[in-house]
Specification:
This protein is of the alpha/beta class and about 250 residues long. It has a single domain, classed as Aldolase class I (TIM Barrel). The protein is built from 12 helices and 8 strands. Helix 1 packs parallel to helix 2 and helix 7 crosses helix 9. The chain is globular and about 45 Å long. The chain binds 2-phosphoglycolic acid. 2-phosphoglycolic acid binds next to strand 8.
């Protein structure tokens, strides 16, 4: 059986100008020069940092660079947008799709997300696919049905081969950037539920090899407990990935 890979992914969002971003990349790399097979570090940077981040991290197999979005189409008259092929041509290996901020501020629904997933996979990018329920759903105890629907409309339509290039990030919306983390029990229960959905749709070995990350106010104080849960294979880190000391402390939680 193929075990899920442990992953620490940073999501810088719209932070860091060019020189600040490059300085941060260099610090993260300097802190992680020794090869490890225990986990992979993925840094999802703004487009302006993509190529240089790839070049700086090239010799480290356990460090990969990703983008935070790609367009639904291959190319054309889409002023201001970036295609999956452009991202891939910089040497990036990953792209985040389905982040709640994209769903909310850019009205990205399942139709849009499926096109983006298709573009990413067509261009050999691995997808970090985000799902997560709003507070009302959690308070009404309807989070499982909500997450199931998000997955049924998108990732659960992929075939097994495509699924090998997918990482799931469970990010309850009420925990993103709020300082309010899901308890390790809430996160574990949801991750186990998500894995069950994959076992039912595909098979146990497929489900067991899927990396499922937790995201939402993950920090050096709570990372260890979250990552020690059976079905949590790492984290997608926003705010705490912007400070190399905090990010490093989270990496060291494995
Ligand atoms: P946060 O963001 O760690 O700042 O809560 C996580 C994310 O949105 O990916």
């Amino acid at each position: 059986m193929h075990l899920p890979k442990n992953i620490i992914a940073g999501n810088w969002k719209m932070n860091k100008n060019y020189s600040e971003g490059i300085a941060l990349i260099k610090e993260i790399i300097a802190n992680n020069t020794s090869e490890t097979e225990e986990y992979e570090i993925i840094i999802n940077v703004p487009f302006i940092h993509l190529k240089e981040a790839v070049d700086l991290s090239k010799e480290y197999k356990h460090i990969a660079i990703g983008a935070q979005d790609c367009h639904t189409e291959s190319s054309g008259a889409f002023t201001g947008n970036i295609s999956a092929e452009m991202i891939q041509s910089c040497g990036a290996k990953y792209v985040i799709i389905g982040h709640s901020e994209r769903r909310m501020y850019h009205q990205e629904d399942a139709t849009v997300l499926n096109k983006k997933i298709k573009q990413a996979l067509k261009n050999q990018l691995k997808v970090i696919f985000c799902i997560g329920e709003p507070l009302e759903e959690r308070e009404a105890d309807k989070q499982n049905a909500y997450i199931q629907k998000q997955l049924e409309e998108t990732i659960l339509q992929l075939n097994k081969e495509e699924l090998k290039n997918i990482i799931i990030a469970y990010e309850p919306i009420w925990a993103i950037g709020t300082g309010k983390t899901a308890s390790s029990m809430q996160a574990q229960n949801m991750h186990a539920f998500i894995r069950t959905l994959f076992a039912e749709k595909y098979d146990t070995s497929t489900a067991n090899s899927l990396s499922i990350l937790y995201g939402g106010s993950c920090n050096p104080n709570n990372a260890k407990e979250l990552f020690s849960q059976e079905d949590i294979n790492g984290g997608l880190i926003g705010g705490a990935s912007l400070k190399s000391d905090d990010f490093q402390a989270i990496i060291k939680s494995f």
